[in-house]
User: Fold this.
Amino acid sequence: MPAKATISVETLPCIDRFRGHGPLLPGHRPRLHGRRRTVLLTHSDARTGMNTPVRKFQIRNPRFAEDLQSGLATMPIVHALGLRFVRIEPGEVEVEMPFADQWSFRPGQFQATPMFAVADFAAVCAAGTLIPEGWSMSTVDVTLKIVGPAMAGPLRAVGRVLKSGKLLTVSEASVYAFDGRGESLCATALVSGRNLPPA
Assistant:
């Protein structure tokens, strides 16, 4: 697995609003445009040396990371699963879950339920980075495909927004398992979430 690249605050003065949100993916850097707080993620093509736009999102809540963390901290299921954020960025979130015997179906291997849960949380939380302040998210549909076993290492799920709309946001999640020698993809998910305005 390639090492994650990090962005220096000193080299990108306008990146201060990302401080504390963790490293970006390799070859990616955010560009902030004016006051709309639009983030353009670009991918560096090793063959051409060009930066190709990947996703463009508008940040509607400058406190999205803090609000996500405080919101999940109130959920008993989050504490039961032991979920924690590894990385929070506009349109992309990484969540980790430790192994525990109560989530296994045989010694040393996760059952499908925690794989589903960590994928759902990662995908919906990725969508939650793009909603306005005071809004919330609710899962309305999940399609999970298990492609390999999840052994006794922690589960890591990366959620990414595919399409952000006014009422619904569609995201994907990739779930990886660690077996002590490295990580492997064990599940993928397609998740639809409802954007809920304040009551």
